[in-house]
């Protein structure tokens, strides 16, 4: 480990690596980031503190993921903005990857005012609706041009095979 730490440029990273803790953020050199990634994947460090950018693009399975906050500061608007829910799910999804671990734990630390939203999102089914109605004319025209639809009956048959149709039968208020 000392040999690896000797090649690291970032002073704080050197100090934390000596204790088995890695740091990963955009301010590190690419070489330092690669060292941290390799050490974590090979389980040479047990703890990795990282920014949200690590959630996307790199396969970093972990047993425990702690998401500290669900907001980030947006410099353009000069205010705190919520992470998209997909980003939070992506971060949580690092915990307990089946090919690496038999279970995982994800913990979100957040303000009390957001607690209800995240509990509801995590424990209740999320409604999924079709947005086909907004672009249905474009799809039907494309199928007419492609020769798939040649009559009104063909158009009706086409629509009955869509998720939009299935949701429409269950919830006629969609139209």
TrEMBL record:
The keyword Magnesium does not apply. SUPFAM superfamilies: P-loop containing nucleoside triphosphate hydrolases (SSF52540). It comes from the Eukaryota. One of its GO terms (cellular component) is nucleus. Keywords: ATP-binding, Helicase, Hydrolase, Nucleotide-binding. Residues 1-144 form the Helicase C-terminal domain. Coiled coil: none annotated. GO terms for molecular function: ATP binding; helicase activity; hydrolase activity. PANTHER family: ACTIVATING SIGNAL COINTEGRATOR 1 COMPLEX SUBUNIT 3, DNA POLYMERASE THETA, PUTATIVE (AFU_ORTHOLOGUE AFUA_1G05260)-RELATED. This is Activating signal cointegrator 1 complex subunit 3-like. It comes from Elysia marginata.
């Amino acid at each position: 480990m000392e040999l690896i730490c000797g090649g690291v440029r970032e002073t704080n990273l050197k100090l934390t690596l000596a204790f088995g803790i890695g740091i990963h953020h955009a301010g590190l050199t690419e070489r330092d980031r690669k060292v941290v990634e390799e050490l974590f994947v090979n389980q040479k460090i047990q703890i990795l503190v990282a920014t949200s950018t690590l959630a996307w693009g790199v396969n970093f399975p972990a047993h425990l993921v702690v998401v500290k906050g669900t907001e980030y500061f947006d410099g353009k608007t000069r205010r705190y903005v919520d992470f998209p829910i997909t980003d939070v799910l992506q971060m949580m999804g690092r915990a307990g990857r089946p090919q690496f671990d038999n279970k995982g734990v994800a913990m979100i630390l957040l303000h009390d005012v957001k607690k209800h939203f995240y509990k509801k999102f995590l424990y209740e089914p999320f409604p999924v609706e079709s947005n086909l109605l907004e672009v249905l004319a474009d799809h039907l025209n494309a199928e007419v041009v492609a020769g798939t639809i040649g009559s009104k009956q063909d158009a009706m048959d086409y629509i009955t095979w869509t998720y939009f149709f299935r949701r429409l039968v269950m919830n006629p208020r969609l139209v």
